[in-house]
Write a structure and sequence with these properties.
The complex is a heterodimer of chains A (192) and B (292).
Chain A: E1 2-6, H1 11-15, E2 22-31, H2 34-41, E3 56-58, E4 63-66, E5 72-76, H3 86-96, E6 100-103, H4 109-119, E7 121-124, H5 130-135, E8 137-144, H6 146-149, E9 155-169, H7 176-189
Parallel strand pairs in A: 1-2, 2-3, 3-6, 6-7
Antiparallel strand pairs in A: 2-9, 4-5, 7-9, 8-9
Helix pairs in contact in A: 2-3, 3-4
Chain B: H1 3-17, H2 21-33, H3 39-57, E1 67-75, H4 80-96, E2 123-129, E3 134-141, H5 143-146, E4 150-153, H6 165-179, E5 187-194, H7 197-206, H8 219-232, E6 248-256, E7 264-270, E8 275-281, E9 287-290
Parallel strand pairs in B: 1-2, 5-6
Antiparallel strand pairs in B: 1-3, 3-8, 4-7, 5-7, 8-9
The chains are: A alpha/beta (192), B alpha+beta (292).
Chain lengths: 192, 292
């Protein structure tokens, strides 16, 4: 199944998504990775202007350069490995009302449980596809905490159009990652 | 700007934006093998499109432009101090130009000064030889794939891995299984059997300088490489861990001597965005040819 998603997303819309669904994301997306997760989990407040309620958080440290007119231009923006945020993600999701997390490599049980309880999904983007994904970012609206965290770790506010991803963890307790891990374990056991 | 610095900036640009042809061929083979309508197929289609876009726009294939690893074969008498200084300046300039992300963080203070320069960055390996040729190879290795590397000490009771090639096979396949799609598969393994903990990983990374379509000159290691490639691709992990037939694009295994008490197997994982190029240089630093 193919779906279009744009924030703010309702819980109802999220509950319709199933593992294996391909989605095209449009609208506002905020980036946040290691430093942001730790900061928020330690009790840090979201900067003014960042609203994650019903929103989408993207695990991404983009390459962003100022252009000749002083505007930010994204030149590379694929997902980073999400599992590093596992200790924090579920709590942050619930606290700030996040409905979708874009990343790569999948996440584990704590996040999966939070997706089920709160109504959220994990959206797997293609790791390394920095150019295809940068083309889907049509505008850099703002950047927050650039000074504190540095460019890759800052919170970037993007407007995206038709950003492709796959639902690999849904709000019904299903995870493609768990499934593939178990199946590949079985296949390996036969070939050891 | 010196000729050498210009050449090194061009090497960085090319490495960051253009996938080597041997890697692209392996990716296209994987794309053909995946079934129509699967998410594995669509992942590889996006990857293929990304490779084309990066090259035409001269922008990074992946935003994680990685650890910067230079391998230099140099003549006796070449000034290595000067070469290193030029390489550092080239890295700084390439970062300003956006070929490299601001990617180097002070591990104590957490600060990223945006230059990509600091202890260990860039990382230069000089090898002096008696020939008159100078060549420089560059590998940019992203953090996602670096994080799924693994080092095993044999024997390993849990995996029933003894100190022999079958034991090596078991632990290498375990590393593939543990990595799943987290290292941005389909990936390439660089493996070192033996060495110590530091040299094992160091040697395993040097395997990435080999072309994917070469064959190991040691028949036993060649057999092991082919076996692991075939077996890994039967595990159903697939591109990005989405399931499918293409889990690995290649396996390269080398060996180093070890002390009798140690038997390490060091496995480095390279993502599909395998960034590696190299050039031969004239004495003044001008590029005289490309190695890949």
């Amino acid at each position: 199944m193919s779906h279009n998603l744009s924030s703010p997303i309702s819980e109802e819309a999220i509950r319709e998504l199933k593992v294996g669904d391909q989605v095209l994301i449009s609208g506002t997306v905020f980036t946040g990775r290691d430093a942001v997760h730790k900061y928020l989990h330690d009790g840090g407040e979201l900067p003014d202007g960042v609203n994650l309620d019903g929103g989408i958080l993207y695990h991404c440290g983009p390459v962003v350069l100022p252009d000749d007119n002083g505007e930010w231009k994204v030149t590379a923006a694929g997902p980073t490995t999400s599992i590093r945020e596992e200790p924090y993600q579920g709590d942050i999701m619930k606290q700030f009302g996040i409905r979708g997390v874009i990343g790569k490599g999948g996440m584990a049980d704590k996040t999966l449980a939070a997706c089920k309880e709160h109504g959220a999904v994990y959206l797997h983007a293609i790791g390394g596809a920095a150019q295809v994904l940068a083309e889907c970012i049509i505008k850099v609206r703002n950047v927050y905490m650039l000074e504190e965290f540095g460019s890759p770790e800052a919170i970037w506010e993007f407007e995206v159009k038709d950003f492709p991803a796959v639902v690999t963890m849904d709000s019904h307790g299903e995870s493609l990652h768990k499934d593939i891990l178990a199946k590949s374990e079985e296949a390996l056991a036969q070939r050891r | 700007m010196s000729r050498l610095r210009e050449s090194l900036i061009e090497l960085i640009r090319r490495t960051s934006a253009e996938i080597p042809d041997d890697v692209q061929t392996a990716i296209l083979r994987g794309l053909e093998q995946e079934k129509e309508g699967t998410i594995a197929k669509s992942a590889l289609e996006i990857i293929e499109r990304n490779i084309g876009l990066a090259k035409s726009k001269s922008q990074p294939i992946c935003q994680d432009t990685g650890s910067i690893l230079f391998y230099i074969d140099c003549t006796v008498g070449m000034n290595q101090v000067e070469f290193e200084q030029e390489a550092r300046e080239a890295v700084k300039e390439a970062t300003k130009l956006g070929y490299l992300r601001q990617n180097s963080v002070d591990s104590v203070t957490g600060k990223n000064d945006g230059t990509n320069l600091g202890p260990g960055s860039p990382n230069l390996h000089f090898h002096q030889h008696t020939s008159d040729d100078i060549s420089v190879r560059l590998v940019l290795k992203g953090g996602g794939c670096e994080n799924v590397g693994a080092q095993f000490s044999l024997p390993n009771t849990k995996l029933a891995a003894d100190r022999d090639l079958d034991g090596c096979r078991k632990v290498i396949l375990e590393a593939v299984h543990q990595a799943q799609g987290k290292g941005c598969g389909p990936g390439v393994l660089g493996v070192c059997i033996g060495g110590d903990r530091a040299s094992g990983y160091e040697f395993s990374k040097r395997e990435f300088l080999r072309r994917l379509d070469d064959r190991n000159t040691d028949p036993k290691l060649d057999e092991l490489e082919q076996d692991i490639l075939k077996t890994a691709n039967e595990l159903g992990i697939g591109p990005m861990g989405f399931g499918g037939k293409t889990t690995l694009l290649g396996v390269k295994i080398g060996a180093a001597n070890r002390v009798p008490a140690s038997y390490f197997v060091s496995v480095s994982y390279m993502c599909w965005a395998f960034r590696r190029h190299g050039a031969t240089l004239a004495n003044d630093g001008e590029i005289t040819g490309w190695l890949y």
